[in-house]
Amino acid sequence: xxxxxxxxxxxxxxxxxxxxxxxxxxxxxxxxxxxxxxxxxxxxxxxxxxxxxxxxxxxxxxxxxxxxxxxxxxxxxxxxxxxxxxxxxxxxxxxxxxxxxxxxxxxxxxxxxxxxxxxxxxxxxxxxxxxxxxxxxxxxxxxxxxxxxxxxxxxxxxxxxxxxxxxxxxxxxxxxxxxxxxxxxxxxxxxxxxxxxxxxxxxxxxxxxxxxxxxxxxxxxxxxxxxxxxxxxxxxxxxxxxxxxxxxxxxxxxxxxxxxxxxxxxxxxxxxxxxxxxxxxxxxxxxxxxxxxxxxxxxxxxxxxxx
Length: 307
Known about the structure:
By secondary structure, the protein is of the alpha/beta class. 51% of the residues lie in helices and 13% in strands. The protein has twelve helices and eight strands. The protein has helices at 3-10, 12-26, 34-46, 51-67, 73-88, 113-126, 143-154, 167-180, 197-214, 232-242, 263-271, 292-300, and strands at residues 101-106, 131-135, 157-159, 185-189, 220-227, 249-253, 275-279, 287-289. Helix 11 (263-271) links the parallel strand 6 and strand 7 (275-279). Helix 4 (51-67) packs across helix 5 (73-88) and helix 10 (232-242) packs parallel to helix 11. It is elongated. The model is unreliable at 303-307 (pLDDT under 50).
């Protein structure tokens, strides 16, 4: 299945809910009016786009309709899609140039953190990169075992300690192994115990110091994993994590299981944190680098394949 086909399929529930409602609001209209703009804002809020972002989309659409003299429903639909793509653009690139580069992954239990790391490792390996995983989420029961299963599945190396070990020590040993084995990318699973922010902040600070000492010039990403099915709760989670971690991007999982895909817009526009990857299925190849234009197409267009 092609890249765009997977995204379109993964966004089906959101598209049916959001785009379907927008099309219904436009049905039978010769031109857009105030009633449509009110309906559009309500539809966007219901899709978990967020009030601020929904208002901005509507205001930008009003401006475009006036300046471009848009009358046809088809042109208005296209303009909404263009506005969404524009709002989502910027910062989504993963620039892993140094050898090795480091990715730290954080997120609370149940969001798909370990699964996302395994899928990311498989993706990078498929690109020809040598990947090593570090099992630094040492306090969650079975986290190490789960990551080891994914390492085997992806065909990459893993460094682990016993449950309850110092996460920074695991990161240190993973970096040492990465250097010795000429790894291109080091991905470390780190904790997400958000209920104790002080401990989490101290733990991450210690990990940062290890990376600063061992790989001072390495490219570094700190990615937060969020569950799309939780809608605005995911946005609130991201706000809390931003208080304790230098988040550079978001991995948004389970988009295929929700009609709340509009939460991507809220995360990017309200929190100013770019989405780097999206999960659109259960398969090992169903974690995809985020593409704003493809995502906007998937929100509004019927399934298509571009293999």
